[in-house]
Amino acid sequence: MSFNAPLQNCISISDLHPSTTHPNVEGVVIGKTDIKGFPDRKSCVQYIFSDIGSERHTFRFTIKDSPDHFINVFSWGRENFIRALSDSFRIGDCVVIENPLIVTKDVEKEEQFNPSTPSFYKLLVSENHSTVRVCSDIERETRLLSLFHLPVKDSQDFYPLGDIIANGQSLDGKVINILAAVRSVGGPKYFTTADRRKGQRCEVKLFDETVPSFPLICWDNEAIHLAQTWIPIETVLFIADARITFDRFRHSMAATVTSKTIITVNPDTREANLLFNYAGEFVKTGGLDDPDDLAADGVNLDSIVDVFTVHQLKLRAHENLDGPDSIYGITYAFVTTMNLDSSCSKLIRNRCARCMFLINEETQSCSSITCSESGNPTEAIASFDLLVDLTDHTGTLKSCNLSGTAAEKTLGCTAEEFICLTEGQKTALKWKFLLERCKVYHKVLPAPNSRSGLRVNVLSCTLADPVETGQSFSRSAM
Known about the structure:
Elements: E1 24-32, E2 36-39, E3 55-66, E4 69-77, H1 79-87, E5 94-98, E6 101-104, H2 107-110, E7 121-126, E8 131-134, H3 138-145, H4 161-167, E9 175-185, E10 189-192, E11 198-207, E12 214-218, H5 221-227, E13 236-247, E14 252-256, E15 262-265, H6 270-284, H7 310-319, E16 327-338, H8 344-347, E17 348-352, E18 359-360, E19 365-366, H9 369-372, E20 380-392, E21 395-403, H10 404-411, H11 415-419, H12 423-433, E22 437-446, E23 454-463, H13 466-477
Parallel strand pairs: 4-7, 12-14
Antiparallel strand pairs: 1-3, 1-5, 2-3, 3-4, 5-8, 6-7, 9-11, 9-13, 10-11, 11-12, 13-14, 13-15, 16-20, 16-22, 17-20, 18-19, 20-21, 22-23
């Protein structure tokens, strides 16, 4: 059957027009947003919502019925209706929309925050006039599902991850397309915003022929739910309209899924097939180690092999004081200070979920000028911000930074989970590490204005294996 041939009782997206009466439209859902609610101060479209003064709820989804045609669908109504409708289907489902309103879209206004579509129109779904149901016809479903693997943009119109990094901050804030394989998928992390709204965040690690690890951040529940279905190494993504930002916390580039983004899973394109084959070969040759071995700043811990005593590290850092390069290394040292039983306000700081800068506790705004001037509401994530002392037989590294995901992996809990621990549990967690010898991966940066002249960021801290420690000391003594 031809893709462009309309099925019985349904009109093709390409044939839609506001004059069409009682249309039925079908398609595979290729994008979907979370539900939002706000007061209905003025009802501009009585067709959709007539109870002026009550609270409206809405969400948007995008459907596709042929290789070249897809359209945005906006649903409005009471909370119960909208939540039930949103829960009835997911991205990747095939749906039939009965009697939507066809409206000419304002391209400049609407496509700033919604996917760009080839249609001149958008569909409106209301509680009183429209229905949306999952397609139950196997023949239709089979035809529509094949469209799910066709990108909405030119399959050759994308940035390799290496080009994103090479262009650096010149791409900050830009919206681009990306083709990459999935390296790992993190679990959702929950947080509370400054105005007490609940939020969530999920980080996916991508890779391609040019870069072994690159972060993709998901904020919406819908995007996070989709990401949890991706199988590392076996999934290739064409990400249309991802926002690129410079992550100042990790000093690296990152991609973010926004309301404009459409993600095509395992796209049926030559470029995607080549990347899929590369991913398989990369694994066989050992090029892709356990994703959990990646440090918080994207460095593969297995690539760090140089072992230093505290004294050697200080000497090396002093020699490199005027150089721009960071020093990565391993030190077997005792944890001599770790005040986990201090008040949580001294151990955990709120950071901006967007740029990871610290939140000003008085104004509850982001300390980043760029972020605070954007006009977007500040969303806060609780993050560990610990200082630990590391000591071996040659000296002590004071006030080493153990923060973010490195702290979470070390302690085995998130900042939110730590807050809920009893004082006894916090003390027991402290003594799991205090005065114990640990294997510490670290990143050392010159810091001429600090007392020690260097800044030590702990990338990983685990209890050391005695045999491995002894062998390390034997090698260093030779």
